[in-house]
Amino acid sequence: MIWLMLATLALVFIAGFRVLNTPTRRACQRLTQRLNIEPVHVESLISQMGTQQGQAFVRYLLSGGESHLNNGAMVLLIYQTFIVNESDDNLHYWRSLIRKAGLNADISPQQVRLALDFLRELAPDAAEMLAFRLRYQQLFAQPSEDAAGEGDNIYILDDFR
Protein backbone atom coordinates (compact mmCIF):
# COMPACT_ATOMS: atom_id res chain seq x y z
CA MET A 1 0.00 0.00 0.00
CA ILE A 2 2.83 2.39 0.85
CA TRP A 3 4.58 1.67 -2.45
CA LEU A 4 1.36 2.60 -4.27
CA MET A 5 1.25 5.99 -2.54
CA LEU A 6 4.94 6.61 -3.27
CA ALA A 7 4.46 5.66 -6.92
CA THR A 8 1.47 8.03 -7.17
CA LEU A 9 3.45 10.82 -5.54
CA ALA A 10 6.34 10.24 -7.95
CA LEU A 11 3.99 10.36 -10.95
CA VAL A 12 2.48 13.63 -9.71
CA PHE A 13 5.93 15.18 -9.36
CA ILE A 14 6.98 13.98 -12.81
CA ALA A 15 3.78 15.28 -14.42
CA GLY A 16 4.11 18.61 -12.59
CA PHE A 17 7.72 18.97 -13.66
CA ARG A 18 6.80 18.32 -17.29
CA VAL A 19 3.95 20.85 -17.17
CA LEU A 20 6.15 23.52 -15.58
CA ASN A 21 8.89 23.05 -18.17
CA THR A 22 6.85 23.05 -21.36
CA PRO A 23 8.25 25.14 -24.21
CA THR A 24 5.24 27.46 -24.06
CA ARG A 25 5.82 28.22 -20.41
CA ARG A 26 9.55 28.78 -20.99
CA ALA A 27 8.87 31.17 -23.88
CA CYS A 28 6.29 33.07 -21.83
CA GLN A 29 8.70 33.32 -18.91
CA ARG A 30 11.49 34.55 -21.14
CA LEU A 31 9.41 37.41 -22.52
CA THR A 32 7.55 38.27 -19.32
CA GLN A 33 10.69 38.33 -17.19
CA ARG A 34 12.45 40.58 -19.66
CA LEU A 35 9.49 42.97 -19.92
CA ASN A 36 8.54 42.58 -16.23
CA ILE A 37 4.86 41.96 -17.03
CA GLU A 38 2.26 39.41 -16.02
CA PRO A 39 2.31 36.16 -18.07
CA VAL A 40 -1.37 36.59 -18.95
CA HIS A 41 -0.46 39.11 -21.68
CA VAL A 42 1.85 36.72 -23.51
CA GLU A 43 -0.41 33.72 -22.91
CA SER A 44 -3.40 35.57 -24.38
CA LEU A 45 -1.30 36.54 -27.40
CA ILE A 46 -0.28 32.93 -27.96
CA SER A 47 -3.83 31.66 -27.53
CA GLN A 48 -5.18 34.23 -30.01
CA MET A 49 -2.58 33.16 -32.58
CA GLY A 50 -4.08 29.70 -32.86
CA THR A 51 -2.39 26.36 -32.36
CA GLN A 52 -0.04 26.29 -35.33
CA GLN A 53 1.06 29.93 -35.24
CA GLY A 54 1.26 29.89 -31.44
CA GLN A 55 3.68 26.97 -31.56
CA ALA A 56 5.69 28.73 -34.27
CA PHE A 57 5.88 31.86 -32.08
CA VAL A 58 7.05 29.79 -29.10
CA ARG A 59 9.73 28.09 -31.22
CA TYR A 60 10.76 31.50 -32.57
CA LEU A 61 11.21 32.93 -29.06
CA LEU A 62 13.12 29.91 -27.79
CA SER A 63 15.39 29.42 -30.81
CA GLY A 64 16.83 32.88 -31.11
CA GLY A 65 18.80 35.34 -29.11
CA GLU A 66 18.24 38.97 -28.30
CA SER A 67 16.91 39.90 -31.74
CA HIS A 68 14.19 37.22 -31.56
CA LEU A 69 13.24 38.45 -28.09
CA ASN A 70 13.05 42.03 -29.37
CA ASN A 71 10.91 40.93 -32.34
CA GLY A 72 8.65 38.92 -30.02
CA ALA A 73 8.24 41.96 -27.79
CA MET A 74 7.30 44.05 -30.82
CA VAL A 75 4.73 41.44 -31.91
CA LEU A 76 3.30 41.71 -28.39
CA LEU A 77 3.27 45.51 -28.65
CA ILE A 78 1.50 45.36 -32.00
CA TYR A 79 -1.04 42.88 -30.63
CA GLN A 80 -1.73 44.93 -27.49
CA THR A 81 -1.87 48.32 -29.23
CA PHE A 82 -3.28 47.47 -32.65
CA ILE A 83 -5.74 44.69 -31.85
CA VAL A 84 -6.59 44.82 -28.13
CA ASN A 85 -6.61 48.56 -27.31
CA GLU A 86 -5.66 51.29 -29.78
CA SER A 87 -5.60 54.20 -27.32
CA ASP A 88 -2.58 56.49 -27.16
CA ASP A 89 -2.24 55.84 -23.41
CA ASN A 90 -1.94 52.11 -24.07
CA LEU A 91 0.59 52.81 -26.82
CA HIS A 92 2.71 54.92 -24.48
CA TYR A 93 2.46 52.27 -21.74
CA TRP A 94 3.63 49.36 -23.91
CA ARG A 95 6.38 51.41 -25.54
CA SER A 96 7.70 52.46 -22.14
CA LEU A 97 7.73 48.81 -21.00
CA ILE A 98 9.81 47.81 -23.99
CA ARG A 99 12.21 50.71 -23.53
CA LYS A 100 12.62 49.95 -19.81
CA ALA A 101 13.57 46.39 -20.78
CA GLY A 102 16.40 47.79 -22.89
CA LEU A 103 14.88 46.72 -26.20
CA ASN A 104 14.51 48.76 -29.36
CA ALA A 105 10.99 50.19 -29.38
CA ASP A 106 10.85 51.20 -33.04
CA ILE A 107 8.63 49.11 -35.31
CA SER A 108 10.37 48.02 -38.49
CA PRO A 109 8.60 46.83 -41.66
CA GLN A 110 10.04 43.35 -41.03
CA GLN A 111 8.42 43.27 -37.59
CA VAL A 112 5.09 44.27 -39.14
CA ARG A 113 5.39 41.37 -41.59
CA LEU A 114 6.33 39.06 -38.73
CA ALA A 115 3.27 40.21 -36.75
CA LEU A 116 1.06 39.72 -39.80
CA ASP A 117 2.39 36.19 -40.14
CA PHE A 118 1.98 35.24 -36.48
CA LEU A 119 -1.43 36.93 -36.15
CA ARG A 120 -2.89 35.61 -39.42
CA GLU A 121 -5.64 33.73 -37.50
CA LEU A 122 -7.01 37.14 -36.47
CA ALA A 123 -6.88 38.31 -40.11
CA PRO A 124 -5.47 41.81 -39.52
CA ASP A 125 -5.52 44.11 -42.53
CA ALA A 126 -1.99 44.68 -43.81
CA ALA A 127 -2.73 48.23 -44.98
CA GLU A 128 -4.19 49.17 -41.60
CA MET A 129 -1.19 47.68 -39.81
CA LEU A 130 1.21 49.63 -42.03
CA ALA A 131 -0.79 52.79 -41.33
CA PHE A 132 -0.54 51.97 -37.62
CA ARG A 133 3.24 51.65 -37.97
CA LEU A 134 3.46 55.04 -39.67
CA ARG A 135 1.30 56.63 -36.96
CA TYR A 136 3.48 54.99 -34.30
CA GLN A 137 6.70 56.19 -35.94
CA GLN A 138 5.35 59.73 -36.27
CA LEU A 139 4.12 59.78 -32.68
CA PHE A 140 7.50 58.74 -31.32
CA ALA A 141 9.75 60.31 -33.96
CA GLN A 142 13.09 61.52 -32.70
CA PRO A 143 13.52 65.26 -33.08
CA SER A 144 15.90 66.07 -35.90
CA GLU A 145 19.36 67.30 -35.02
CA ASP A 146 18.69 70.50 -36.96
CA ALA A 147 15.85 71.34 -34.57
CA ALA A 148 18.13 70.93 -31.54
CA GLY A 149 19.90 74.01 -30.30
CA GLU A 150 23.60 74.59 -30.92
CA GLY A 151 25.85 73.40 -28.11
CA ASP A 152 23.23 70.99 -26.78
CA ASN A 153 24.93 68.32 -24.69
CA ILE A 154 21.98 65.93 -24.37
CA TYR A 155 22.36 62.70 -26.30
CA ILE A 156 19.76 60.01 -26.86
CA LEU A 157 21.28 56.66 -25.95
CA ASP A 158 19.09 54.73 -28.40
CA ASP A 159 21.26 56.08 -31.22
CA PHE A 160 24.31 54.32 -29.76
CA ARG A 161 22.78 50.84 -29.39
Automatic annotation (TrEMBL):
Top-level taxon of origin: Bacteria
InterPro entries according to UniProt: DUF1198
Protein name: Protein of uncharacterized function (DUF1198)
Organism: Edwardsiella hoshinae
Lineage: Bacteria, Pseudomonadati, Pseudomonadota, Gammaproteobacteria, Enterobacterales
